[in-house]
Specification:
88 residues; alpha+beta; Histidine-containing Protein, Chain: A; four-stranded antiparallel sheet; 3 helices; 4 strands; globular
Length: 88
């Protein structure tokens, strides 16, 4: 298992567009990806979980990745958060 820390940089937080990109990545990944906020884990492949997460701009999240090629998955997730999921 790999754990990384990310920061939500999108002004509107994690809303529909970034959530859908994260879900596409997480469901295609051969393993599990969880986002952790305030000690609670949320499944990155589940829309309801990510909406319930209610991640706002500047929130810090822990991401736990377990499965095949964890390092590559961690790099991609870090890139998604760093680039604001392609939003400007």
């Amino acid at each position: 298992m790999i754990s990384i820390n990310v920061q939500v940089k999108n002004e509107l937080g994690l809303h529909a567009r970034p959530i859908s990109k994260l879900i596409r990545f997480a469901t295609a990944y051969d393993g599990t990806i969880s986002l952790i906020k305030n000690g609670r884990a949320y499944n990155a492949g589940n829309m309801l979980d990510l909406i319930t997460l209610d991640a706002k701009c500047n929130d810090h999240l822990e991401v736990e990745i377990q499965g095949n090629d964890e390092a590559a998955a961690a790099d991609e997730i870090a890139r998604l958060f760093k680039t604001k999921f392609g939003e400007f």
